[in-house]
Write a structure and sequence with these properties.
flavin adenine dinucleotide binding; alpha/beta; FAD/NAD(P)-binding domain; about 425 residues
């Protein structure tokens, strides 16, 4: 493939890294992706604890909490013959593998290669890479960098009084793998987000009793799990249990922390001039471009979004500037744009922890990226399906995966029960 001579380093070969690699190659760049695992797929690769030094958060029996109709890329969809919309994790991995095969990406991916250090050097990027298999080190120089290392690898553990005095078993959802591990036990699950609700549902078939601690208002329905009791947030732990905010107490054998993850970039040198303050990564233009070094893009920081579609949009946004089809605003203008975004979030009472949260704002964000870079936006039908699915994985957990979606055109879809399909 003929290139324009500009070298692009893609860090990671998961959902974000694969589309960064594919789009870079299509724009005539000399791109290469480095993946520290032995296969592509990122978080969708299932590994047993202790099986690898590097492993994902994937667990047994996981099905997607978004329909496959929004989980494809703009130019590559899931096979229509898959009947259910909410597919098992193995189908997602298979889809990513087929995407790589379809666009002939394998020859540009170096597996078992770990990025050790990234630092700016004379308007380029000096990158040290470890070849894990041969235990050798390589230095490469690149013009552009896509950071696509994901954010489901560094568990975020809350600092709750008395946690060190608790004598039972403690586990973050990152390490959770199988529900029968909790057979006949009493479990406290902390957090009622997507993973907290899903794991609670899985282990409810085996555990004797589950306490689900959260601060959601309204509370999710757990009637279909009769052995689940909802609790307020934990005030402090004791040796065998906890005291909750309402001063009730419970005892339990296990704690599962479904409390999210930290954004972490251990390979970025201090010279890169990015900071992470309570999961607020800054300074970034439009949540992805390093303002100090705008030849670096971080893909996939926004959450409560449509993942693969938004990753692809961010990549195409960055490439519009990397290829000079668009000129970046001045540094001052990019900082002003960042401050405006921060001020809007401050007015809504959002903390640093939620600096990259989108939710209902995601559609404005997509519009902003597409208009700023002069690129095609995510199709309206994708946004409409996302709106239809909003928070159902929390509030309609027992039934929402029974829906089947079918995209009719760029604007419209139909939905019907899976069993009548």
């Amino acid at each position: 493939m003929a290139t324009n001579g500009k070298r692009v380093c893609v860090i990671g070969a998961g959902t974000a890294g694969l589309c960064a690699l594919k789009n870079s190659l299509q724009q005539g760049m000399d791109a290469i992706a480095y993946e520290q695992c032995s296969e592509i797929g990122g978080t969708w690769v299932y590994t047993k604890p202790g099986e690898n030094d590097v492993h994902s958060s994937m667990y047994e029996g996981l099905r997607t909490n978004l329909p496959k109709e929004v989980m494809g890329y703009p130019d590559y969809s899931y096979p229509s013959e898959i009947e259910q919309s909410f597919v098992p994790s193995a189908e997602v991995l298979k889809f990513l593998q087929s995407y790589a095969q379809h666009f002939d990406l394998s020859k540009y991916i170096k597996l078992q290669h770990e990025i050790i250090r990234v630092r700016p050097l004379d308007e380029k990027w000096e990158i040290y890479i470890r070849d894990i298999k041969n235990d050798t080190f390589i230095k490469e120089i690149f013009d552009f960098v896509f950071v696509c290392n994901g954010h489901y690898s560094m568990p975020l553990m809350p600092d709750i009084e008395g946690i060190d005095s608790y004598k039972g078993q403690k586990l973050h959802s990152h390490w959770y793998r199988k529900p029968d591990t909790f057979e006949g036990t009493t479990v406290l699950v902390i957090g009622a987000g997507p993973s907290g609700m899903d794991i609670t549902n899985h282990i409810s078939k085996f555990a004797k009793q589950i306490y689900l601690s959260h601060n959601l208002d309204p509370a999710p329905c757990t009637d279909f799990m009769p052995n689940v009791t909802q609790k307020t947030v934990v005030k402090r732990f004791t040796a065998d249990g906890a005291v909750f905010k309402d001063d009730t107490t419970e005892t339990f054998d296990h704690i599962i922390f479904c409390t999210g993850y930290k954004y972490t970039f251990p390979f970025l040198s201090i010279d890169v001039s990015l900071r992470v303050d309570d999961n607020f990564v800054h300074p970034l233009y439009k949540h992805c471009i390093n303002i100090h070094y705008p030849t670096m893009a971080l893909i996939g920081l926004p959450f409560y979004v449509c993942p693969s579609q938004s990753f692809d949009l961010q990549v195409r946004f960055a490439l519009a500037f990397f290829t000079k089809k668009r000129e970046f605003p001045s540094r001052e203008e990019m900082f002003a744009d960042l401050e405006k975004d921060k001020e809007n979030r401050r007015k809504k009472g959002l903390t640093n922890r939620l600096a990259h949260a989108m939710g209902d704002k995601q559609y404005d964000y997509y519009q902003d990226l597409s208009e700023t870079a002069g690129i095609e936006n995510i199709k309206p039908v994708i946004n409409k399906i996302m709106e239809d699915c909003s928070r159902k994985y929390i509030y309609e957990l027992a039934t929402y995966r029974n829906d089947r979606f079918k995209v009719l055109d760029d604007e419209t879809f139909v939905k019907f029960p899976l069993e009548t399909a």
